[in-house]
Write a structure and sequence with these properties.
Rossmann fold; 2 domains; globular; nucleotide-binding; hydrolase; ATP binding; RNA-helicase_DEAD-box_CS; helicase
């Protein structure tokens, strides 16, 4: 082959030709694939990984098998064993498996193999409900396809449209997108079309097909070819999925490795029944009891996420918030701090409840109980992933009993109570109450700062609560540190009241 012909081919086309000639450089990489994962083997076996079945047994080519071992995926999980051979046969698939069981690999590997067989740009679209999950799936595709030069493009809200349009103009092989932003590009980006797409994947399909995304999904399906493969994957399924199954899948095969809604066996689940007024005190007690672990705390609202993070910081605990009102760059920064273990506590709304794979999460705390019981499955699935152990504790107040009973009904079992010594918990009451007051004052400062900026600039700064510049709150609260002006005066008075007379009167 001449050099000019070689220059005109994409990386994937070159890799496809090399694979056809038997030159997939698997021998060169073999040394790198012998990673020692024996210590994880037992756990993986318990999590549905059959170590007697290899990646080659599923029908994958050597290049992809080597890539799997390079990621320390020693052997396929249940969902991968069931789904990959069917996908390689060209079947449409509905995959139902508990969270943390390797669903991303179950659809990524067949797509990459099909891409090698028939290289083309705009080959597959993966739809996800959250931006963070889109970036994570992109990382998985790029890691698995590193040796074959796969180009991915992430299209999500909160990022610059023009920059994304330029990325799309380069014609990536795989597009990972949230439905709303993909529709924006279909309607506004010249030259962009999905007419040639060969594969459509909906990850967390039940969430994508709910009312929030229904209109966008219908628009996307209308501009896609009927001759395509469609994969739906989730830990939970709904009637909407059955509706789409009839509408846009051709003779789909249902791969169901869990017959009911369930969590992995190595996840220890508890509930903690508490008075609503002492919820923060119990939270701090549990964090102290389980100190040294990595925590994800779920709250129901953005405001509560920020307030809880500020309260924990005031107590000297390194916490970072993550919620939907932050800009995308700040959301990614918060997630990266937690992933790199620079922070041990991530406090989030349900924006982080689905699909995110952060291996070192030891404990999930449901500070606010989820309104929909299926969301519980996704939240607690952030821990005990890929055969590891984990804990989940759900805080249940007198107002949450009915919601909690729905969760137990969904799981089909009663959860044990997490035992706390009430005297030890109440000993923290004063410190937590003071930190909570501090957090409320700081949150009010942030809101005033936003309001005073207003306009477009205010919108850009709307997520400044994610930065960690607000630990000086207690300094401002000290008498003598109030620097004139309305805000400083209020901070000083609040601090003196909190430390002195008010506490005396309450006790």
């Amino acid at each position: 082959m001449s050099s000019s012909e070689s220059d005109g081919m994409s990386d994937v086309e070159e890799a496809a030709r090399a694979a056809a000639n038997g030159d997939d450089s698997s021998n060169q990489e073999e040394n790198g694939s012998g990673t020692d994962v024996d210590e994880e083997q037992d756990g993986q076996a318990e999590n549905g990984t059959d170590v007697s079945k290899s990646w080659e047994d599923l029908g994958l080519i050597d290049t992809l098998c080597t890539a799997c071992r390079g990621l320390k995926w020693k052997a396929p999980s249940k969902i991968q064993r069931e789904a990959i051979p069917l996908a390689l046969q060209g079947k449409d698939i509905i995959g139902l498996a508990e969270t943390g069981s390797g669903k991303t690999g179950a659809f990524a590997l067949p797509i990459l193999q099909a891409l090698l067989d028939n290289p083309q740009r705009y080959f597959a679209v993966v739809l996800t409900p959250t931006r963070e999950l889109a970036y994570q799936i992109s990382e998985q595709f790029e890691a698995l396809g590193a040796t074959i030069g796969v180009k991915c493009c992430v299209i999500v809200g909160g990022m610059d449209l023009v920059t994304q349009a330029i990325q799309l103009a380069r014609k990536p092989h795989i597009i990972i997108a949230t439905p709303g932003r993909l529709v924006d590009h279909l309607e506004n980006t010249k030259g962009f079309s999905l007419k040639a797409i060969r594969y459509l994947v909906m990850d967390e399909a039940d969430r994508i097909l709910n009312m929030d995304f229904e209109e966008e999904v219908n628009k996307i399906l209308k501009v896609m070819p009927r001759e395509r493969r469609t994969f739906l994957f989730s830990a939970t399924m709904t009637k909407k999925v059955k509706k789409l199954e009839r509408a846009s899948l051709r003779d789909p095969v249902k791969v169901e490795v869990s017959s009911k809604y369930q969590t992995v066996e190595k996840l220890l689940q508890y509930y903690l029944f508490i008075p609503a007024r002492y919820k923060n005190v119990y939270l701090v007690h549990v964090l102290n009891e389980l100190a040294g672990n990595s925590f994800m705390i779920f709250c129901s609202t953005c405001n509560n996420t920020v307030r809880t993070a500020l309260m924990l910081r005031a107590l000297g605990l390194a916490a970072v918030p993550l919620h939907g009102q932050m800009t995308q760059n700040k959301r990614l920064a918060a997630l990266n701090k937690f992933k790199s273990q620079a922070r041990q506590i991530l406090i989030s709304t349900d924006v982080a409840s689905r699909g995110l794979d952060i291996p070192h999460v030891d404990v999930v705390l449901n500070l606010d109980i989820p309104m929909h019981s299926k969301d519980y499955i996704h939240r607690v699935g952030r821990t005990a992933r890929a055969g590891r152990a984990g804990q989940a504790i759900t805080f249940v107040t007198q107002y949450d009993v009915e919601l909690y009973q729905r969760i137990e009904h969904l799981l089909g079992k009663k959860l044990p109570e997490y035992k706390c010594e009430q005297d030890e918990v109440m000993a923290l009451q004063e410190r937590v109450a003071e930190a909570h007051r501090t957090a409320r004052i700081e949150q009010r400062d942030i809101e005033e700062r936003k309001a005073s900026k207003g306009g477009k600039r205010g919108a850009n700064d709307s997520d400044e609560e994610d930065t960690e510049q607000f630990n000086g709150v207690r300094k401002r609260l000290k008498p003598g540190n109030a620097k004139g002006g309305d805000r400083g005066g209020r901070g000083g008075r609040g601090g003196r009241g909190g430390r002195g007379s008010k506490r005396g009167r309450r006790n």
